[in-house]
Fold:
Amino acid sequence: MALSGDQKDRGELRIHESLDELQTDLADYIAEISETSVKERGVFAIALSGGSLIGLMGKLCEAPYNKTVDWSKWYIFWADERVVAKNHADSNYKLAKDGLLSKVPIVPSHVHSINDTMSAEEAADDYEFVIRQLVKTRVVNVSEISDCPKFDLILLGLGPDGHVASMFPNHPALNEREEWVTFITDSPKPPPERITFTLPVINSASNVAVVVTGDSKAEAVRLAIDDIGPEGPLIPARMVQPGKGKLLWFLDKPAASKLEASNLSK
Ligand SMILES: O=C1O[C@H](COP(=O)(O)O)[C@@H](O)[C@H](O)[C@H]1O
Structure:
């Protein structure tokens, strides 16, 4: 049984007893948002991250989801990508392809990964151009409060340093307000060259879910969610604040272990 609660301005928290329970809840949640988006818009535009997230989404490849989800309506994007070849072990595309996309009937032309033959800067510009074309045709919705794309769902992981997508603590990319997709060449976590959605895009989504497991991330979870006062460090995950959308945290108990217990109710 999960503990759940709402933390003022920091969204809904779901804290799970086990990884198995978290994975089932995550699969249910994604399937529900997919169904709602397809009913309302005819399509589902989802942006993935890399890292541990993809393994935690694994139940989507199993019954009942593999048969009940309308995969033909899914359009896949990446909230961040490493600028490496698509068949490289560090590629977020490869991770998702091997762990999810090759196991369910996604339409290949609906998978929008970065151009891996370009420099980081070119790949970021090109990816933004691709998204702009899909906003024009409303495959990706548009935000009412900014000129940004409004993804139906953006799924994020969280690094122990508080990074989300490829936005790292104190990095100038956090201040980008004009571009939808930006690039970095100095990621503190290898590989150094990456592209990433900017905060305005993440914060314009209809739904943002941050999926975090393990005690190595407990301090980052605390700094992202708890009331740490004005002097507390502003880690990237704390800057995830969807304007009109819904923010949800999927945590296991070790990741939630440093949160104030007062956030939680049965
Ligand atoms: O480098 C990255 O790290 C984060 C966190 O990964 P995790 O394995 O600690 O969950 C990930 O969300 C991001 O997409 C990836 O590029």
